[in-house]
Protein backbone atom coordinates (compact mmCIF):
# COMPACT_ATOMS: atom_id res chain seq x y z
CA UNK A 1 0.00 0.00 0.00
CA UNK A 2 1.38 3.44 -0.91
CA UNK A 3 1.69 5.85 1.97
CA UNK A 4 -1.28 8.11 1.33
CA UNK A 5 -0.75 11.84 1.05
CA UNK A 6 -2.95 12.26 4.10
CA UNK A 7 -0.66 10.09 6.17
CA UNK A 8 2.31 12.13 5.03
CA UNK A 9 0.57 15.35 5.95
CA UNK A 10 -0.02 13.93 9.41
CA UNK A 11 3.69 13.07 9.62
CA UNK A 12 4.71 16.57 8.60
CA UNK A 13 2.38 18.15 11.16
CA UNK A 14 3.55 15.66 13.76
CA UNK A 15 7.18 16.63 13.20
CA UNK A 16 6.35 20.30 13.17
CA UNK A 17 4.30 20.88 16.25
CA UNK A 18 2.44 17.89 17.60
CA UNK A 19 2.13 17.81 21.32
CA UNK A 20 5.27 19.45 22.62
CA UNK A 21 5.82 20.25 26.29
CA UNK A 22 6.18 23.65 27.94
CA UNK A 23 9.99 23.59 28.07
CA UNK A 24 10.19 22.89 24.35
CA UNK A 25 7.53 25.53 23.56
CA UNK A 26 9.60 28.12 25.41
CA UNK A 27 12.87 27.03 23.85
CA UNK A 28 11.80 27.05 20.18
CA UNK A 29 11.38 30.82 19.75
CA UNK A 30 14.92 31.34 21.06
CA UNK A 31 16.52 29.06 18.45
CA UNK A 32 17.75 29.85 14.92
CA UNK A 33 15.37 28.43 12.33
CA UNK A 34 15.45 27.57 8.64
CA UNK A 35 13.06 26.21 6.08
CA UNK A 36 12.47 22.50 6.66
CA UNK A 37 11.44 20.05 3.95
CA UNK A 38 9.05 17.57 5.45
CA UNK A 39 7.92 20.07 8.07
CA UNK A 40 7.84 23.83 7.63
CA UNK A 41 10.86 24.58 9.78
CA UNK A 42 13.93 23.06 11.33
CA UNK A 43 15.51 24.57 14.43
CA UNK A 44 19.15 24.63 15.46
CA UNK A 45 19.73 23.26 18.93
CA UNK A 46 23.24 22.71 20.35
CA UNK A 47 24.64 23.30 16.86
CA UNK A 48 22.48 20.71 15.04
CA UNK A 49 19.18 20.89 13.12
CA UNK A 50 15.93 19.28 14.26
CA UNK A 51 12.21 19.25 13.64
CA UNK A 52 10.36 20.70 16.66
CA UNK A 53 8.81 17.41 17.72
CA UNK A 54 12.24 15.85 17.79
CA UNK A 55 13.62 18.62 20.01
CA UNK A 56 10.97 17.55 22.49
CA UNK A 57 12.49 14.04 22.46
CA UNK A 58 16.04 15.39 22.64
CA UNK A 59 15.29 17.48 25.74
CA UNK A 60 13.55 14.59 27.40
CA UNK A 61 16.24 11.98 26.77
CA UNK A 62 18.99 14.39 27.80
CA UNK A 63 17.17 14.97 31.06
CA UNK A 64 15.94 11.48 31.86
CA UNK A 65 18.02 8.77 30.18
CA UNK A 66 20.28 6.97 32.66
CA UNK A 67 22.89 4.81 30.99
CA UNK A 68 24.02 1.50 32.43
CA UNK A 69 27.58 0.33 31.89
CA UNK A 70 26.19 -2.60 29.93
CA UNK A 71 24.17 -0.44 27.49
CA UNK A 72 24.93 -0.32 23.80
CA UNK A 73 24.04 2.74 21.74
CA UNK A 74 23.95 2.62 17.98
CA UNK A 75 24.39 6.04 16.41
CA UNK A 76 24.09 7.40 12.87
CA UNK A 77 23.13 10.50 10.99
CA UNK A 78 19.99 9.63 8.96
CA UNK A 79 20.46 7.53 5.81
CA UNK A 80 23.86 6.14 6.76
CA UNK A 81 22.62 2.57 7.12
CA UNK A 82 20.77 2.81 10.44
CA UNK A 83 18.25 0.11 9.53
CA UNK A 84 20.99 -2.32 8.51
CA UNK A 85 23.08 -1.71 11.63
CA UNK A 86 20.01 -2.06 13.86
CA UNK A 87 19.29 -5.44 12.30
CA UNK A 88 22.90 -6.61 12.55
CA UNK A 89 23.37 -5.56 16.14
CA UNK A 90 20.01 -6.89 17.28
CA UNK A 91 20.75 -10.27 15.67
CA UNK A 92 24.30 -10.25 17.04
CA UNK A 93 23.58 -9.59 20.68
CA UNK A 94 20.50 -11.83 20.70
CA UNK A 95 22.07 -14.75 18.83
CA UNK A 96 21.74 -17.14 21.77
CA UNK A 97 18.18 -16.10 22.53
CA UNK A 98 17.06 -16.49 18.89
CA UNK A 99 19.27 -19.14 17.34
CA UNK A 100 16.80 -20.03 14.59
CA UNK A 101 16.99 -17.34 11.95
CA UNK A 102 14.57 -19.16 9.66
CA UNK A 103 11.48 -19.60 11.78
CA UNK A 104 10.97 -17.55 14.92
CA UNK A 105 13.44 -14.69 14.68
CA UNK A 106 11.93 -11.27 15.56
CA UNK A 107 13.55 -9.73 12.45
CA UNK A 108 11.28 -11.90 10.32
CA UNK A 109 8.17 -10.21 11.67
CA UNK A 110 9.31 -6.79 12.83
CA UNK A 111 11.10 -3.91 11.14
CA UNK A 112 14.54 -3.28 12.75
CA UNK A 113 13.34 0.17 13.88
CA UNK A 114 10.69 -1.48 16.01
CA UNK A 115 13.27 -3.74 17.65
CA UNK A 116 15.89 -1.10 18.38
CA UNK A 117 14.10 2.09 19.38
CA UNK A 118 15.39 5.61 18.88
CA UNK A 119 15.48 7.82 21.98
CA UNK A 120 14.41 11.10 20.46
CA UNK A 121 12.02 9.75 17.81
CA UNK A 122 10.43 7.05 19.91
CA UNK A 123 11.10 6.32 23.54
CA UNK A 124 11.25 9.95 24.66
CA UNK A 125 8.96 11.69 22.19
CA UNK A 126 5.85 11.69 24.39
CA UNK A 127 5.89 14.85 26.48
CA UNK A 128 3.93 13.25 29.32
CA UNK A 129 5.10 9.67 29.36
CA UNK A 130 8.59 8.41 30.10
CA UNK A 131 9.61 4.91 29.02
CA UNK A 132 10.11 2.23 31.63
CA UNK A 133 13.54 0.89 30.74
CA UNK A 134 14.15 -0.96 34.03
CA UNK A 135 12.48 -4.09 32.76
CA UNK A 136 14.75 -4.55 29.74
CA UNK A 137 17.36 -7.18 30.43
CA UNK A 138 20.97 -6.24 29.71
CA UNK A 139 22.58 -5.54 27.38
CA UNK A 140 20.02 -2.90 26.45
CA UNK A 141 20.30 -1.74 22.85
CA UNK A 142 19.25 1.81 21.94
CA UNK A 143 19.72 4.10 19.01
CA UNK A 144 19.90 7.78 18.29
CA UNK A 145 20.79 10.28 15.57
CA UNK A 146 22.19 12.75 18.13
CA UNK A 147 25.63 14.34 17.79
CA UNK A 148 28.27 13.39 20.36
CA UNK A 149 27.92 16.80 22.00
CA UNK A 150 24.20 16.30 22.56
CA UNK A 151 24.26 12.78 24.01
CA UNK A 152 22.73 12.38 27.48
CA UNK A 153 25.47 13.01 30.04
CA UNK A 154 25.27 9.54 31.55
CA UNK A 155 26.21 8.02 28.18
CA UNK A 156 29.50 9.91 28.26
CA UNK A 157 30.11 9.25 31.96
CA UNK A 158 29.35 5.54 31.98
CA UNK A 159 31.21 2.65 30.37
CA UNK A 160 28.40 1.96 27.92
CA UNK A 161 29.50 1.30 24.34
CA UNK A 162 28.79 3.44 21.30
CA UNK A 163 28.77 2.06 17.75
CA UNK A 164 28.78 4.84 15.17
CA UNK A 165 28.10 4.27 11.48
CA UNK A 166 28.50 6.82 8.69
CA UNK A 167 28.45 6.79 4.92
CA UNK A 168 29.95 8.73 2.02
CA UNK A 169 28.18 12.11 2.20
CA UNK A 170 27.23 11.87 -1.49
CA UNK A 171 25.29 8.64 -0.96
CA UNK A 172 23.93 9.88 2.37
CA UNK A 173 22.58 12.94 0.60
CA UNK A 174 21.09 11.02 -2.34
CA UNK A 175 19.43 8.55 0.01
CA UNK A 176 18.07 11.44 2.08
CA UNK A 177 16.66 13.24 -0.97
CA UNK A 178 14.78 10.13 -2.05
CA UNK A 179 13.56 9.55 1.49
CA UNK A 180 12.30 13.12 1.94
CA UNK A 181 10.40 12.86 -1.32
CA UNK A 182 8.75 9.64 -0.23
CA UNK A 183 7.54 11.15 3.02
CA UNK A 184 6.75 14.61 1.69
CA UNK A 185 3.41 16.16 2.64
CA UNK A 186 0.23 16.35 0.62
CA UNK A 187 0.24 18.37 -2.59
CA UNK A 188 3.96 19.05 -2.54
CA UNK A 189 6.02 18.77 -5.71
CA UNK A 190 9.13 16.61 -5.65
CA UNK A 191 11.71 18.57 -3.67
CA UNK A 192 14.21 20.16 -6.08
CA UNK A 193 17.48 18.25 -5.93
CA UNK A 194 19.54 21.44 -6.19
CA UNK A 195 17.80 23.15 -3.28
CA UNK A 196 17.97 20.17 -0.96
CA UNK A 197 21.62 19.75 -1.95
CA UNK A 198 22.35 23.38 -1.16
CA UNK A 199 20.78 22.99 2.32
CA UNK A 200 22.69 19.77 2.94
CA UNK A 201 25.99 21.41 1.99
CA UNK A 202 25.25 24.34 4.31
CA UNK A 203 24.70 21.78 7.05
CA UNK A 204 20.96 22.39 7.29
CA UNK A 205 19.74 18.82 7.21
CA UNK A 206 17.94 16.73 9.84
CA UNK A 207 20.44 16.06 12.67
CA UNK A 208 23.17 17.76 10.59
CA UNK A 209 25.56 19.32 9.74
CA UNK A 210 26.73 15.99 8.34
CA UNK A 211 30.45 16.83 8.61
CA UNK A 212 30.38 18.01 12.24
CA UNK A 213 28.29 14.97 13.20
CA UNK A 214 30.77 12.52 11.69
CA UNK A 215 33.82 14.39 12.93
CA UNK A 216 32.54 14.45 16.52
CA UNK A 217 32.39 10.64 16.63
CA UNK A 218 35.57 10.17 14.60
CA UNK A 219 37.56 12.21 17.12
CA UNK A 220 35.96 10.41 20.04
CA UNK A 221 36.72 7.01 18.52
CA UNK A 222 40.40 7.96 18.24
CA UNK A 223 40.45 9.26 21.78
CA UNK A 224 38.48 6.40 23.36
CA UNK A 225 38.54 3.37 21.04
CA UNK A 226 37.07 1.10 23.71
CA UNK A 227 34.10 3.42 24.12
CA UNK A 228 33.33 4.45 20.51
CA UNK A 229 33.59 2.23 17.46
CA UNK A 230 33.57 4.12 14.15
CA UNK A 231 32.28 2.31 11.07
CA UNK A 232 31.69 3.17 7.42
CA UNK A 233 28.80 1.76 5.37
CA UNK A 234 31.08 1.23 2.36
CA UNK A 235 33.57 -0.80 4.38
CA UNK A 236 30.91 -3.07 5.88
CA UNK A 237 29.51 -3.60 2.37
CA UNK A 238 32.95 -4.66 1.19
CA UNK A 239 33.87 -6.93 4.12
CA UNK A 240 30.66 -7.74 6.01
CA UNK A 241 31.98 -10.82 7.78
CA UNK A 242 35.11 -9.06 8.99
CA UNK A 243 33.16 -6.08 10.37
CA UNK A 244 30.45 -8.17 12.01
CA UNK A 245 33.21 -9.95 13.90
CA UNK A 246 34.88 -6.64 14.76
CA UNK A 247 31.58 -5.35 16.19
CA UNK A 248 31.20 -8.58 18.18
CA UNK A 249 34.72 -8.16 19.61
CA UNK A 250 34.10 -4.50 20.42
CA UNK A 251 30.92 -5.46 22.28
CA UNK A 252 32.87 -8.16 24.11
CA UNK A 253 30.77 -10.96 22.70
CA UNK A 254 33.13 -12.41 20.06
CA UNK A 255 32.11 -15.41 17.98
CA UNK A 256 33.47 -18.67 19.33
CA UNK A 257 35.26 -21.13 17.05
CA UNK A 258 32.23 -23.38 17.36
CA UNK A 259 29.87 -20.60 16.27
CA UNK A 260 32.11 -19.83 13.32
CA UNK A 261 32.22 -23.45 12.27
CA UNK A 262 28.43 -23.61 12.44
CA UNK A 263 28.21 -20.45 10.31
CA UNK A 264 26.37 -18.33 12.89
CA UNK A 265 28.15 -15.21 11.55
CA UNK A 266 27.08 -15.86 7.96
CA UNK A 267 23.53 -16.64 9.08
CA UNK A 268 23.31 -13.21 10.73
CA UNK A 269 24.66 -11.50 7.63
CA UNK A 270 22.18 -13.32 5.39
CA UNK A 271 19.28 -12.54 7.70
CA UNK A 272 20.20 -8.83 7.71
CA UNK A 273 21.10 -8.49 4.04
CA UNK A 274 19.29 -5.88 1.98
CA UNK A 275 17.88 -8.61 -0.27
CA UNK A 276 16.47 -10.62 2.62
CA UNK A 277 15.09 -7.78 4.76
CA UNK A 278 13.59 -5.81 1.88
CA UNK A 279 11.75 -8.89 0.62
CA UNK A 280 10.15 -9.80 3.93
CA UNK A 281 6.41 -9.23 4.04
CA UNK A 282 6.75 -7.14 7.21
CA UNK A 283 9.01 -4.67 5.45
CA UNK A 284 6.70 -4.29 2.45
CA UNK A 285 3.63 -3.31 4.46
CA UNK A 286 2.85 -1.31 7.60
CA UNK A 287 4.61 1.55 9.32
CA UNK A 288 7.19 1.83 12.06
CA UNK A 289 6.18 3.31 15.41
CA UNK A 290 7.20 6.82 14.32
CA UNK A 291 4.76 6.82 11.38
CA UNK A 292 7.02 6.11 8.41
CA UNK A 293 6.26 3.20 6.10
CA UNK A 294 8.55 0.20 6.62
CA UNK A 295 9.37 -0.06 2.94
CA UNK A 296 10.69 3.52 2.88
CA UNK A 297 13.84 2.30 4.64
CA UNK A 298 14.78 0.01 1.76
CA UNK A 299 15.61 1.56 -1.59
CA UNK A 300 18.73 0.32 -3.40
CA UNK A 301 21.20 -0.36 -0.61
CA UNK A 302 24.24 0.17 -2.83
CA UNK A 303 27.48 2.09 -2.76
CA UNK A 304 27.92 4.85 -5.34
CA UNK A 305 24.33 5.58 -6.36
CA UNK A 306 25.34 9.27 -6.30
CA UNK A 307 26.95 8.72 -9.72
CA UNK A 308 23.47 8.34 -11.18
CA UNK A 309 22.09 11.60 -9.95
CA UNK A 310 24.64 14.25 -8.91
CA UNK A 311 26.08 16.66 -11.49
CA UNK A 312 29.83 17.15 -11.90
CA UNK A 313 29.57 20.50 -10.10
CA UNK A 314 27.70 18.96 -7.18
CA UNK A 315 30.27 16.19 -6.86
CA UNK A 316 33.11 18.68 -6.89
CA UNK A 317 31.40 20.90 -4.35
CA UNK A 318 30.61 18.17 -1.84
CA UNK A 319 34.05 16.57 -2.25
CA UNK A 320 35.67 19.92 -1.53
CA UNK A 321 33.71 20.33 1.72
CA UNK A 322 34.52 16.79 2.75
CA UNK A 323 38.21 17.29 2.05
CA UNK A 324 38.19 20.57 3.97
CA UNK A 325 36.61 19.07 7.07
CA UNK A 326 38.09 15.60 7.12
CA UNK A 327 41.53 15.46 5.53
CA UNK A 328 43.39 17.08 8.41
CA UNK A 329 41.84 14.50 10.72
CA UNK A 330 42.87 11.56 8.55
CA UNK A 331 39.31 10.68 7.59
CA UNK A 332 38.55 9.72 3.98
CA UNK A 333 35.61 8.51 1.89
P1 LIG B 1 17.33 6.04 8.73
O1 LIG B 1 18.58 6.70 9.20
O2 LIG B 1 16.24 7.00 8.37
O3 LIG B 1 16.86 4.95 9.62
P2 LIG B 1 18.87 4.38 6.99
O4 LIG B 1 18.51 2.99 7.30
O5 LIG B 1 20.15 4.91 7.52
O6 LIG B 1 17.67 5.34 7.34
O7 LIG B 1 18.99 4.61 5.44
C1 LIG B 1 18.38 3.86 4.49
C2 LIG B 1 19.47 3.45 3.53
O8 LIG B 1 20.03 2.21 3.95
C3 LIG B 1 18.88 3.23 2.15
O9 LIG B 1 19.94 3.51 1.24
P3 LIG B 1 19.67 3.94 -0.28
O10 LIG B 1 18.66 5.03 -0.25
O11 LIG B 1 21.00 4.39 -0.80
O12 LIG B 1 19.19 2.71 -0.95
C4 LIG B 1 18.56 1.75 2.23
O13 LIG B 1 18.38 1.14 0.97
C5 LIG B 1 19.80 1.23 2.94
N1 LIG B 1 19.57 -0.06 3.59
C6 LIG B 1 18.48 -0.48 4.28
N2 LIG B 1 18.63 -1.73 4.70
C7 LIG B 1 19.86 -2.14 4.27
C8 LIG B 1 20.58 -3.37 4.39
N3 LIG B 1 20.07 -4.41 5.02
N4 LIG B 1 21.80 -3.42 3.81
C9 LIG B 1 22.33 -2.37 3.17
N5 LIG B 1 21.69 -1.19 3.01
C10 LIG B 1 20.45 -1.07 3.56
From TrEMBL:
<feature type="domain" description="Sulfotransferase">
    <location>
        <begin position="69"/>
        <end position="323"/>
    </location>
</feature>
<dbReference type="InterPro" id="IPR000863">
    <property type="entry name" value="Sulfotransferase_dom"/>
</dbReference>
<protein>
    <recommendedName>
        <fullName>Sulfotransferase</fullName>
        <ecNumber>2.8.2.-</ecNumber>
    </recommendedName>
</protein>
<comment type="similarity">
    <text>Belongs to the sulfotransferase 1 family.</text>
</comment>
<keyword id="KW-0808">Transferase</keyword>
<dbReference type="GO" id="GO:0008146">
    <property type="term" value="F:sulfotransferase activity"/>
</dbReference>
<dbReference type="Pfam" id="PF00685">
    <property type="entry name" value="Sulfotransfer_1"/>
</dbReference>
<dbReference type="InterPro" id="IPR027417">
    <property type="entry name" value="P-loop_NTPase"/>
</dbReference>
